[in-house]
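note to self: the first set is below, dont mix up w the second
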Amino acid sequence: MGVSKRPVSIVNTMGKGRKPTPVAVKLLKGNPGKRPLKDVPQAKGELPECPLWFDDIARGEWERLAGDIPWVRGADASMFEVYCVAYSQWRRALKKQGEPGNGFVASTSAGSIKRHPLVAIAVEAANQMKAAAAELGLTPCARTRLGTPMAKSDSKFKKFVG
């Protein structure tokens, strides 16, 4: 047999596909696929106190969310830190961008116009926030996958319908 002359790529060019449904959600739905469920290790410990090195914005976000996410445990603390730091970077970039002299574009030394660096910082921080939030169950879609209960609301529509 000859050796294949096809180049080998270590980069996966296929899409990742759908994220697997968490076991907890499958159990809540009564295991509709009737396939054997995997044993999923549960994170242990409680979420630690807010890191001392956080700035005021990151600390505020940690304190705002820490009590509302009981499924985030001690083992998840580093991902929660990533989320809070990215949130702080995003907020600071947007605030700085709104100051006089800053905007969406900047002039180079050659006189051409390019995207302002603060825009790139804000976009990158938002992407990091989005990824960490999805991992932690902080987005509506992620909470649906986790099967976390929705907050009750006293909407005017609900009162009207009964």
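second set (the one i keep forgetting abt)
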Amino acid sequence: MRQQFTSFYVAVVAMTLLAMMMAIPRAQTAKVPLPAVNDQIYGYHFHIYFLPNDTKALNSANDLMTKAKAAFPNLRISLFNYPIGPHPIPMFEIDLEHLPQDQVKEYLYQVLPWVMLNVDFTEHPVLLHPLSDNELADHTVRPAWFGQKLILNIRKL
């Protein structure tokens, strides 16, 4: 009899919790249209972020950028000491955009492991996103984040 009562009690508690969870209003998020299947990716950007007004973080980012330039002398690697476009804090960018199309994947396969082995994601969040004709989708439904995901200002896309 006691076991039946316990099972009944557990079932009632579970049903009550489920009903309470269903009653909690959910935040509405903007729906981004899914990209077309035939969108073509023609490049990638790696954004390595650092905190503004943090000398240690800036020095670390500069060291990483120097190492990246040495490892990938053929790539465009640019420092932005200020928020730019949808990016909310300073960062440097490794650009796989201005390459012959047949070299994009080759460099992606080299840069991605380099980033994973050299960047401390607790200090420098990283956004990797493709480049296509759908910039909004590239930054919202297609990106990969390493470390803390930052909130991008998608109104600036």
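remember for set 2: Helices lie at 2-23, 55-71, 101-118, 135-140.
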